Amino acid sequence: MWRLQRAETPAARLFQAFCEEGHYAGREEPTDTRQGIYAVTPSGRLLTSWNSRNLDHVKSKMREALVDWEDLDDSQRYPDEELLSGPRPEDHYPKDGLVLQVFTRDLPREGDEQREDWRREAWNVDHLWLSEEEMLALAKTGLTAEAANRLVRLHGRDNVRGQSRRYPREAVTRAELTTTLDEQLGLSRLVRLEGYGAVSESGTWSINDRHDGPAEHVRSFEGPMLGRAVFDTVTSQITTFELAWVGLRRGATKYNGRADDPGPAPMAVVFVLAPGEDRVAPSWFWDYGWR
Amino acid sequence: MLLAALLLATAPQETEASVPELDFSNFAEIVRHVVPGPDEMRWRSVPWRPTLFDGLREGARLKQPVLLWAMNGHPLGST
């Protein structure tokens, strides 16, 4: 979304044009968001848009879009020229490296007084990309210092209930993940992963969206990591991967929905292999420094 | 609730602010607890394309309109 609203790629420019004609058109008090669902032609012409996940509403709007689509001729539906990509994080997809899905969720706790609603089951997903060089190092001895710092600062954030910005590099106080050979099965190396991650930041920020002002806050996450992986020495690929990072989360950020539940409380981050078709870039890819 | 039962059984002295000790006796349970099950991942069974660019280009090729779901945070990652 951030990229669509600000980038200068051809697709982003189309978005910036049609989003102002949809459900955000004519706002007297514009905000910085263009969230919603948009039905558009491949040429970038808006059919309709809305910002609701109510099933009946979604179906109604999709039918409305198809009626409008039928009224258009090809010159309105399709672009005159093939759309050009422009630079995208997805261009850096590490096909010879390691692509992981990263899930976060609260762990059970005694005396849990969370409301009986979606918050109790909340979870989130992000992605971690490792280059081929980083993956080979992990398979052999462990994560490089750079990759370990990246893992901790980008995935130690509490995004269980909502968005949370990444930690700055200097907020990482401990980041290590080492690899030990457990067993050599033919041409496959079964390895054990062990490590620790700690990250902490203090500063001035809001913790309740638009309902509070900036104030002094602290946030942190810290705990051990444990996992296992299988490295295929023929293909030089990691074919099995599970890593859990368990620790205490503390604090809240502006959009992560923790103003009423700042902890400390147990949270887990689990890394697993992403399916091959999952090419969504890590949410903080720009912080990778990959060019 | 199997995870809760397991964690509380192995660490009876836990308080609200404690974390289960992480070892291979509870590793698989923790992974299962955190990774969403099939019901929680059903929305991903829709063959979403990762970017608007991919959707527009494929829409032109297939001669179909495009549905864009745009959130502050990619709906397929870190929503």
Mean pLDDT figure of chain B: 80
Measured as a percent range, the helix fraction of chain A is: 10-25%
Helix-strand pattern of chain B: HHHE
* Share of residues in strands of chain B: 5-15%
Distance between the termini of chain B: 26 Å
The oligomeric state of the chains shown is heterodimer
> Largest inter-chain interface?
A-B, 78 and 47 residues
- Which secondary-structure class do the elements of chain B indicate? mainly alpha
User: Could you give the distance between the termini of chain A?
Assistant: 21 Å
Structural category of chain A is: alpha+beta
Helix-strand pattern of chain A: HHEEHHEHEHHEEEEE
Give a quick account of the main beta sheet of chain B: strands, pairing sense, barrel closure. Answer: none
Which ranges of chain A are low-confidence, i.e. pLDDT below 50, for 5 or more consecutive residues?
Answer: none
Main sheet: strand order of chain A: 4-3-9-8-7-6-5
Annotation field: number of helices of chain A: 7
Shape of chain B: elongated
For the secondary structure, the number of strands of chain B is 1
Helix content of chain B: 25-40%
Number-wise, the strands of chain A total 9
Overall 3D geometry of chain A? globular
Q: Low-confidence spans of chain B: pLDDT under 50, at least 5 residues?
A: 1-15
